[in-house]
Amino acid sequence: MTQPAVDLAPDFARLRDPDRDTAIREITTTIVALPSIRRHRLSNTEMSTREFVLVRVRLENGVEGIGEAAVLGGPRWAEESVESIKAVIDRYLAPGLIGCPAAQWAGIAARMGRAAIRNNAAKGALETAILDALTRTLELPLAALFGGALRDRVPVLWALASGDAEQELEEARAKLDRREHRDFKIKLGFATPEEDIARLTRLREGLPGMARLIVDANQGWSEADCRRHLPALRDLGVSLIEQPLPGDDYEGMARVAAQSPIPLMVDEAAFTHREIARAGAMGCGSVYSLKLVKSGGLMALAEAARVAEAAGMELYGGCLLEGSIGAAAHLAVFASLPRLPWGCEHFGPRMHRREIVRDPLLIEDFHLHLPTGPGLGVELDEDALAEFARSD
């Protein structure tokens, strides 16, 4: 599906006074804890409940927008936690935005940049809620702000991260049988590399219907581990290796990438545009993982995609286990990209026993489908929100 770029001028003309009508009246935050269908393990933590911050923005015209700030098990993946995100928005970001027109999103981003350094998850969720409210006002899909959707669905993989190969085989076979996922990412790094390889071998042998096999060590391997085990990963038909070394080891990543017959993906090594350009120039990897929590805003996420491509890297739609709200925000950008050769990994909406939206995003025929309707295209379930909102 291809849509032409959208001219916003007629829609703004419908507003009596765009600056007044889209002025931000109220910003509220809620910490939400959703139980997962199973434990999810990373190299440095594991979780069975996913916590995030729901941001709600109400404009003077009464329209409300929503955004999601995701974390992985507290401040372990990056420096932010749900508690810090809520505090930063409530105390530092929100006060400076009350009264600002949502239609002036560049100025809003500048104000947030002056109010707080980094805090990218907080900024990304707040900007998402503002842009959701704006595009709901204009009765346009959020993707319109990025030139319009070039596709209405994106290939989506499933992550296997319990560490129990037999449980993972059962889980993956069910995904294949239901035609939900055929590409799989295997989380490594919480066992020895030898144990990781043995588990990968069992999964590869037990899943003949698997298409792409991607591995993610979450910065848990050393350069020596990579050199020892690259031949085994090659023999297992691994398609992509995500961030095997610590994020600040640019030189090590570059050496491994130069030796590896398998493409390396840059994730935690590059948050800012300057870091993306540096990683590309040093040859740290040939694929870049796009994440709202790294860019700090949807506009910056779209810019990050252009910087990464200019640096010679292909694009991959990364996630931090966002639910339907966060996934819909990412899809608004992903759908507008001319090239997204690695698809995305926004399986998060299926990781929860229940969501806080009425219609969770659709995964069908191995694709995640772009929601329809204005703004993000998802609506809050107030009853579910009341049930899962944290009281502390």
TrEMBL record:
Pathway: Aromatic compound metabolism. One of its GO terms (biological process) is amino acid catabolic process. Coiled coil: none annotated. Keywords: Aromatic hydrocarbons catabolism, Isomerase, Manganese, Metal-binding. GO terms for molecular function: chloromuconate cycloisomerase activity; magnesium ion binding; manganese ion binding; muconate cycloisomerase activity; racemase and epimerase activity. The active site is at residues 187, 345. It comes from the Bacteria. Residues 165-263 form the Mandelate racemase/muconate lactonizing enzyme C-terminal domain. Pfam families: MR_MLE_C, MR_MLE_N. Its cofactor is Mn(2+). NCBIfam families: mucon_cyclo. Belongs to the mandelate racemase/muconate lactonizing enzyme family. This is Mandelate racemase. It comes from Pukyongiella litopenaei.
